[in-house]
Amino acid sequence: MAGSFRPLIISSYPRSGNTWLRFLLRACLVEDERLLDPNFVGDEYWLNSADIVSFGSFFLGSDLDYDEFLELRAEAIERLLGSKVDQLFLFKTHETFNPSIASVVERTGSAILHVVRDPRDVAVSLASYEGITLDDSVDFICSDSWIGSPTGRGDGASFSEHLGSWSDHVLSWSSCGLESRIVRFEDILDATAVVLSELLSWLNLSAPADRLELAVQSTRFERLKFLTRSGFTQGKASP
């Protein structure tokens, strides 16, 4: 790997390839053969994880309410980044872009990579994954939806994520006004190596051709379909 790591926030609506892209980048950039094992999680972080705010603090993030968590998140991530030198930090989120995330970017210099997938395919994938009807899935992505409770409280280990509708979600990230790049799921699927090489260049990083090819082959989409976060809870925000 050539270049220096920069914190990277990878955002997407659920079922859009976020996990796959993180595996591709990680396998390409970190020379640890465990990263080619789809069962190895490694150093990755959810932006809504209560543990992030707990890091370097004298309290548990799970004891906070939603607004407190959002207020303290950027400072906590800044502490986390300062604790480890020259490490690849990938932060995953399904949230709509919001002031709390803007604060994270401002304080940490994180880059933003947003993955977009055809909403028709998102609806089909979500219906299959959740075991719901296609009509219910379409209703979900067209509504002001959440992962978790609209109150912000998650399962104790994490806080809820406000998705909004699919279109509102995409618009929030594409118009955030910060340095960012949008990549289409379909392009990753059709030309994985090309897209990965372009993303590395955008991040001012590079990898040997053999490492890039190994990353592509070992993290094929078909192998990683099952690697999705469990516990996706359907729910809509109150009007």
Q: How would you briefly describe this protein structure?
A:
By secondary structure, the chain is an alpha/beta fold.
Structure explained in plain terms:
It is a single chain. By secondary structure, this protein is of the alpha/beta class. The protein contains eleven helices and eight strands. It has one domain: 3-Layer(aba) Sandwich (Rossmann fold), CATH 3.40.50. It has helices spanning 18-29, 50-54, 66-83, 99-108, 119-130, 134-141, 166-174, 185-190, 192-202, 209-218, 221-224; strands spanning 8-12, 44-46, 90-93, 111-116, 145-147, 161-164, 180-184, 234-236. Strands 2-3-1-4-7 form a five-stranded parallel beta sheet, sandwiched between helices. It has a three-stranded antiparallel beta sheet with strand order 6-5-8. Helix 1 (18-29) packs antiparallel against helix 10, helix 3 packs parallel to helix 4 and helix 5 (119-130) crosses helix 6 (134-141). The chain is globular, with a radius of gyration of 17 Å.
Kindly list the characteristics that best describe this protein.
single chain; 239 residues; alpha/beta; Rossmann fold; five-stranded parallel β-sheet; 44% helix
Mind telling me the CATH class?
Alpha Beta
What is the count of DSSP helices, taking H or I runs of 4+ residues? 11
* Overall pLDDT: 83
In N-to-C order, the SSE pattern is EHEHHEHEHHEEHEHHHHE
**Number of E-type strands:** 8
> Which spans have pLDDT < 50 for at least 5 consecutive residues?
228-239
Using the alpha-carbon principal axes, give the shape. Answer: globular
Which CATH architecture is right?
Answer: 3-Layer(aba) Sandwich
**Biggest sheet: strands, sense, closure?**
5 strands, parallel
Helical proportion, percent range: 40-55%
Q: How many domains in all?
A: 1
Class from helix and strand fractions: alpha/beta
Rounded Rg: 17 Å
- By CATH, the topology is Rossmann fold
Taking the alpha carbons of the first and last residues, their distance comes to 48 Å
**How large is the share of residues in beta strands?**
5-15%
Relevant CATH superfamily: P-loop containing nucleotide triphosphate hydrolases
Order of strands across the widest beta sheet?
2-3-1-4-7
